[in-house]
UniProtKB/TrEMBL annotation:
Keywords tagged on the record: Glycoprotein, Hydrolase, Membrane, Transmembrane, Transmembrane helix
Chain ranges passing through the membrane: 42-63, 90-114, 126-147, 159-178, 190-213, 500-519
Entry coiled-coil feature ranges: none
Taxon lineage: Eukaryota, Metazoa, Chordata, Craniata, Vertebrata
Designated name of the protein: GP-PDE domain-containing protein
Amino acid sequence: MVKHQPLQVYERQLCLSCITGIYGCRWKRYQRSHDDTTKWELLWSFVLLFTFGLLLLWSYFWWEAHNDYSEYNWFLYNRSGEWSDGTAPIVASTAAGFTYITFLMVLALCHVAVGQQLNLHWLHKIGVTAALLTTVVGLISVTQTWGYEWDVVPISLQATGPFLHIGAVAAVTALSWIAAGQVARAEKTIFQVVVVLLYFSVLLALYMVPLYITSPCIMDPSNLKSRPEVIGHQGASMLAPENTMWSFQRALQMNVTGLETDVTISLDGVPFLMHDATLRRTTDVQKVFPERQWEDASSFNWTDLRLLNTGHWFLKDDPFGTVQTLSPHEKQLIGNQTVCSLEQLLKLASFNNCTVVFKLGRPPPEHPSHYSWINDTLQAVLKSGIQQSLVFWTPEEERAEVRKMAPGLVQTSLVKPETPETLQREGISAMLLRYNQATTQEIGALSQNNINLTLYTVNEPWLYSVLWCSGVSSVSSEAPHILKKVPYPIWLMKPDEYCVLWVSMDLVSFAVVIAIFIFQKYRSSGIHSYNPEQIMLSAAVRRASRDVNVMKEKLIFSGIPRVHISTDPQPLE
């Protein structure tokens, strides 16, 4: 008779099997271990953590740099000569990599929480290495080619800092469950002390972060200045091809108070609107004048420029992904746009009583207007009949002579001065700067000295809100239709209210952490003297109705008489 005697009975642990299986391909119980993680695997855990931190920074950078995607694409165009959305593959790969690394981080934390040995599978190690190297290459490339864009990170923290701090406190508070579990299960006192000191040092440092958070949006609402005026950057260039009459008309429909553009002088001395050095990107010069497509835009006379179409490229390339939102009538209008002259723009602005600010590019030395470019442009301004106070004059050259000929022009500087008083001594009453070139303190100083400051290019509501709270006079935007929907800063909080929120959050977090440490200590004290097999066996015995697996059996043979088997050959009968 054969008797079966179970030695060990285990509960199903599907969740644990999935955690260890996905992370280290250890799906079976005998493959798992509660032993200490090896030094090699600890090293890979730190590599995973470092990769997660880099990808977090990289993802945040591209999330906030959305305001300047068009600028990055234009930068790529200047290097390659072909227009494409270079941000799309970067954002997609960053999102995929960050999701993957975050998933591995969660699995690693689950291993620590349940006391399992970390053992990252070699395929994941390859994936982590690829993500790390790709991110490092991306960081270096952006720093070398688009380094000034990193300024968007500290600027964006003025809008997101308080909320990121709340999220960080919540995350570290949740991690107290793992830290407390490690302390409760540890047998060495020195390890317990190190974990407690390390965790609470990070937690207390995080509690103090608001002391270093500065945001113009933390202010008394009564001190909030009037809404910054919105100037159409090259018109409404998200809704229509840049520097065209339809683009400026669309901007005016969005209630902008001014128009900003770039001016180049044609071969026969006519100032016209063009941002790029060549005509390839925004016209059909490759079709009309294929042999001249790489020539400087100023080498064309006005007659030839009027033959070029400036709308087809917008419908074809869809640089902002807005073409599908346009009506058939709008698409027809866009398809009929041509090169616009400065005089046409000034007459449109004069009719609508809005300001005009333009950057003037000097023609090359061989150009007929190389020495008369200032006078040619000034004559076009005077000829248009626009009120001089509506024109912001930016060229630094021959500024004194321009003042004599047109004293009513608003003298505007494109260069950041050492002090606002310097501008006043030079008779400059306005400035046009990129949004990262002026701090909150500098904006306030310029405002106190009655210097009209316009910052470009501002497309995102969060950036507009931060600059509004900073007290900026006006912003130049490619998306006036978006900023039109921002009647008030996205968030505004009194300093006292923020202080109460900060202290309350810290107190609640600290209370939760202490409660978790006490609970983990109490929880572990009852099971400290049992091994995992005993715990699971007792659980299975208490719940006999559960479906359990017999992992190992011992066969006991009893009641069978012994039989002697001889190996000697027997004679046949």
